[in-house]
Amino acid sequence: MSTLDPAQAPASSPPGPDGAPHRPHRPRLALAVLAANTLMVTLDGSIVSVAMPALQRDLGFGAAGLSWVVNAYLIAFGGLLLLAGRLGDLLGRKRMFLAGTGVFTLASLLAGAAGSPGLLVAARFLQGVGGAMASAVALGLLVTLFPDPAGRARAIAVFSFTGAAGASLGQVAGGVLTDALSWHWIFLVNLPPGLAVLALAVRSLPADRGLGLRAGADVLGALYVTGGLMTGIYAVVQIEQRGPGSAHTLGFGALALVLLTAFARRQSRARTPLMPPRVLRAPGVAAANLVQVLVVAAMFAFSIMVALNLQQVQGYGAARTGVAMLPAALAIGAVSLGLSARLIARFGERRILLAGLVPLGVLLALLVRLPAGASYPVDLLPSMLLGAGFGLVLPALTSLGMSGAREDDAGLASGLFTTTQQLGMALGLAVLSTLAAGRTAHLTAAGASSAEALNGGHHLAFAAGTVLLGAAFLAALVLLRAPRIRRSR
């Protein structure tokens, strides 16, 4: 299977006046637009976490209903990414990006103005739809903007940093906005950057006609995969509430498996498949996506469980929690922007991925011993700084996940890669939260104090995250081929 070739004219890009393929005059501006959109969407996914108590108090959410502020977004976002990525290839990735950004920005306005639980959950679902439309094609646009390996590696480093740092920055922004203003502003803050991204994207992103619906308008396949992903994510995010062995979880899990199996069978037979099998057969693509699911699931223990521990066990407020996690974002940025592209060019994606997984494993192993009443400089800051490993892991995974994408499949490969990120988040949310809640309940029943019981539950989640990272390391070691080392001159 061929990969993107710098000398190959993109299949979906219209020719310029001289017959050469159209390229934007300002690719750096286009990269800034894509990165800004990714930061906005990623930040929105985490900014809600520290504002949940305020949302519950002001809008009257019940304990079960409050989880749908997160779940509605996850189900829409994760369920539509693969379809949106393929539609971007067929209808034009720029069109899909602009439409998604517009829907996301409008939904942010509706969420900020919501006056009831139902309206907020509906707006969050719409945010997930818009976020999926824009995010699904972002990497596909990026790889066509930067066809040369060195330029693409640097662009992926910038793009990966915005995604990795967005979660940490969301904690900071959510805490500050909620404490200083109100929860409404965690959504309204998206309006200025959303409008700016729309205006600049029109000018900077390359125009593309797409392949046309006839090249892959598999309606039944689209229904199978979208229904399967949404049903599967719904089953996973309800595990903590319903239980892993409940009829609800097993029933919806089985339905998701049936739909996704039907989708896979159809793709091998359909005349114009939604996801051509060649995409997953590209070297490293399937393995990179598998490793990503494990890594993202494990790092949920860091991005969410640490924030909960700081507030529930250590007694931090929302704003202080965000500031406490800021060193992780800075460390990720320093490594991702300053080192990752050069290290990947010299040693290859596989080696850098394996090297980055080591400090992340140490990070979670240290948190297993985090005491109540912890000293921030001694007990927490080292773990924050070890988060720098994510600045190596995500760019390497992104390069591997997009390495086999052809020009006409770039949107689909992008959507697939972003889908596995969301599946990892849903898996981490379900498994680690369930383990933590069960351990907390057991310790409480045994007579432990509230803080001790919560801390014990978080310890189990950190231990489970360490195991997931170990599995990711083994999968990368065994399944990913050793790359050719591209030594810099």
Summary?
With 489 residues, the chain is mostly helical. It is built from 21 helices and no strands.
Structure, explained:
Residues 1-11 have a biased composition (Low complexity). It is found in: Cell membrane. The chain crosses the membrane at residues 29-55, 61-84, 96-115, 121-143, 155-177, 183-205, 217-239, 245-264, 285-310, 322-345, 352-372, 384-402, 423-441, 461-480. With 489 residues, the chain is mostly helical. It folds into 2 domains: 27-217 and 272-479, MFS general substrate transporter like domains (Growth Hormone, Chain: A, Up-down Bundle); 218-271. 76% of the residues lie in helices and 0% in strands. The protein is built from 21 helices and no strands. Helix 14 (285-312) packs antiparallel against helix 21 (450-479). The longest helix has 36 residues, at 410-445. It is globular, with a radius of gyration of 22 Å. The two termini are 29 Å apart.
**Shape type:** globular
Helix content: over 70%
- Reading the helices and strands in chain order gives HHHHHHHHHHHHHHHHHHHHH
Name of the CATH class of the largest domain:
Mainly Alpha
Counted beta strands:
0
Strand pairing plus helix content: what structural class? mainly alpha
Largest sheet features: none
Number of domains: 2
CATH architecture title of the largest domain: Up-down Bundle
* CATH homologous superfamily label of the largest domain: MFS general substrate transporter like domains
Kindly report the CATH topology of the largest domain. Growth Hormone, Chain: A
Low-confidence stretches: 1-24, 483-489
Strand content: under 5%
Distance from N terminus to C terminus (CA atoms, Å) equals 29 Å
Q: How many DSSP H or I helices?
A: 21
The whole-number mean of residue pLDDT values reads: 80
